[in-house]
Specification:
mainly alpha; 4 helices
């Protein structure tokens, strides 16, 4: 299972970096991706009051969301529901 998580993380991170490097302003693209990822994490937790889907806000989840953006939030949500792993 750890191999699948590592490969998935590597593929998504590579896709985000390639997408950012193909733009004229890669640092601005990465910063925007980080802000949108952290914002999406907070939005999931606000909406989680009504839907029951919440993600923990800790150093790991913030790092994943900042590095991967919105795909990172989706990855955390899918992993939490598929693996039945509560986020600490």
């Amino acid at each position: 299972m750890e191999v699948v998580l590592t490969v998935t993380l590597a593929v998504v991170l590579t896709a985000v970096l390639i997408g950012a490097l193909l733009t004229r302003r890669p640092l601005q693209a990465l910063g925007g991706s980080a802000l949108s990822g952290v914002g999406a994490l907070m939005a999931v937790n606000v909406v989680g009051i009504f839907s029951g889907v919440t993600l923990a806000v800790n150093a790991f989840s913030m790092t994943v969301c900042a590095l991967l953006g919105i795909p990172g939030v989706i990855l955390l949500a899918v992993l939490q529901t598929m693996c039945f792993v509560p986020m600490i």
